[in-house]
Design goal:
Number of domains: 1
Shape: globular
Strand order of the largest sheet: 1-4-5-6-7-10-11-12
Strand content: 25-35%
CATH topology: TIM Barrel
Helix content: 25-40%
Largest sheet: 8 strands, parallel, barrel
Oligomer: single chain
Structural class: alpha/beta
Number of strands: 12
Radius of gyration: 16 Å
CATH superfamily: Aldolase class I
Length: about 250
């Protein structure tokens, strides 16, 4: 098992970090640049920046904010939200992003994933998978538009397809667990681990340090969380200490 990465996530709307439960009832959690800088100093392995309003507002990601974040941190920065073209990806990389997270646009036009991987390499392409329990053959469906719309896609079929199209990593966010603090969706992580040839980032549901350990043991390569870090109920150092205590290598 490679060393586990711990990744704070900044969900941004109207220039502020927000967080809710199952993508609803969003509340303010602070300034994105300040938070990104603090997490870098606290030992985060990466930072993920998601412009959660960009897709629904039919606009691109705020490039200036990406640049400001990139100037403050010296760890990988993944940026998502509002990416529709290869040019969007190019502009984000020029602005300071190291990787991009693509979700809804890839569902609408899967060929986009092939184009991004061909132009910039698989290492740049993170597929954002907002998944929830549904009446599909695997028991999990794929949502779009920030979890608002359930598509007809089966989650495991889509995981296989995005890998074939050049995905470098999979960001698995459980809509059912998101913001609940009841723990990561272990069944979902295990199902995807069985069919994934690329690293898995587990997201959604972290509430205790034990939850991070459970997700790592289930097969996650990286552990992403938002509200528990924003509200300082759990620190990055505490997560890494718990992982080490469980015999799991950390960065």
């Amino acid at each position: 098992m490679p060393a586990i990465r711990v990744i704070p996530c900044l969900d941004v709307a109207d220039g502020r970090v927000v967080k809710g439960v199952r993508f609803e009832n969003l509340r303010d959690s602070g300034d994105p640049v300040e938070l990104a800088s603090n997490y870098y100093l606290q030992g985060a392995d990466e930072v993920t920046f998601l412009d959660v309003a960009a897709t629904n507002e039919n606009r691109g990601t705020m490039l200036e904010m990406v640049t400001k974040c990139a100037e403050q941190i010296f760890i990988p920065l993944t940026v998502g939200g509002g990416i529709r073209t290869v040019d969007d990806v190019s502009n984000l990389l020029k602005s300071g992003a190291d990787k991009v997270s693509v979700g809804s646009a890839g569902i609408r036009r899967p060929q986009l994933l092939n184009e991004i991987a061909a132009e910039h390499g698989a290492q740049v392409l993170v597929i954002s998978l907002d998944l929830k329990r549904a009446a599909t053959k695997s028991g999990f469906g794929v949502t779009s538009n920030g979890g608002r719309e359930l598509t007809a896609l089966d989650a495991m079929d889509w995981v296989r397809e995005v890998q074939d199209r050049g995905a470098g990593e999979l960001l698995i966010n459980s809509i059912d667990a998101d913001g609940t603090r009841d723990g990561f969706d272990i069944e979902l992580i295990q199902k995807i681990r069985e069919i994934s040839q690329v690293p898995i980032i587990a997201s959604g549901g972290a509430g205790k340090v034990e939850h991070f350990v459970e997700a790592a043991l289930a097969g996650a390569d990286a552990l992403l969380a938002a509200s528990v870090f924003h509200e300082r109920s759990i620190s990055i150092a505490e997560v890494k200490s718990s992982l080490k205590a469980a015999g799991i290598e950390v960065r």
